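Data card: per-record layout.
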Amino acid sequence: MDFEPWWLILLPVLFGLGWVAARVDIRQMLSETRNLPDSYFKGLNFILNEEPDRAIDAFIEVAKLDPETTELHFALGSLFRRRGEMERAIRVHQSLLARADLPVAEREHAQHELAHDFLKAGMLDRAEQAFLAVQDTRFAVPAVRALVRIYESGHDWPKAIDAVKKLKALVDEPVPQLVHYQCEQAQAALAAKPPRLDAAIAALDAADHAYRTLKDNDRTMASRARVAMLRARVARAANQALHERDFLVAVLSDAPDYAGLVASELLDNYRQAGQAPQGLALLKAHYLRHPTLDLFNVVFRELRAQEGYAPAWAFAREALRAHPSLLGLDRLLEAELASDDTPKTGAGIAPDADLGLLRSLIHKHTQRLDRYACNSCGFEARHFYWQCPGCNSWETYPPRRLEETR
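The structure for this 406-residue chain is written out next.
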């Protein structure tokens, strides 16, 4: 390409135009900066220094000077919510929504923030309506997530299930707790008077489907165990003893750590069929492979009932030697003291020992260990929960007592 002499004139002109444009932008920026009140910069400085109280005072002053500044209102509402001043946060966002000239995008933003205000304030009905109002906007994903939490906290399982389905349509991610929502529906159907077995079976079929659609790394023994345990309850209510046994045995094979939760029901099933020794042998063999305190307690008591004092204590000695446990010893002494044929002194266990005194001493130290504990928040409970009552997390309770997890 040939060089044209007029290019020598064009280059300085372009450079000059760029310089003028830059100067105009700088002057405009400086002019806008000068127009901002000092309180604005003070508020920013307080936020950076993690002084929200003083930042709020500064931003309130700016908002009084320029009430049309929506960004400041959003900042104020967020700060109020962080401090727990929910009435003031709600009032700020409601004042934004009351403005007729508010653009659609900012109106949706204000509605979403107001929904979070209601949620944090515990006003779940109003939070639900506020999130429903933005579920078809750019805030759809966080709004539906919040709706799932709201329905879950209110134990409204049908709505929670519908919200999860809507969430899965918006984002491609697994929702493992859906299995438990279906199980909760099944449990409610079984608790009805009379039990609604068809509804329970339908809910458990849906739970099975939800479990199968999960990726392998999202599937858990807890979900599998819970579905099997509820199917066993359905079979028992329908007087289908063999089906009940199949489901309970499936827990032992598919979720062996949860055997202690079904051991008593499984023994009852064998006992009603006149096969108590076979049931005991099955649980005893399982304990040798997967020992837990709950299963130890069931096996020891059944050995004591079926075979007597000496075989039960022989099993207990071997078990406690392999897995030393104060809680296990406490359970032993409790069972022995409750039996009519037990010597009140130790006899062959510990000659001349006062079992009542020994148990009272041990029991004082084991009371705090005889609990299940949440792996997420540490909340302790005497009963096993699929959902932690403290932090509402699912499957955070291991099926082992506190002493076993330490």
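Known properties of this structure: The chain has four domains: 68-170, 174-258, 291-370, 371-406. The two ends are 81 Å apart (CA to CA).

See the next section for split statistics.
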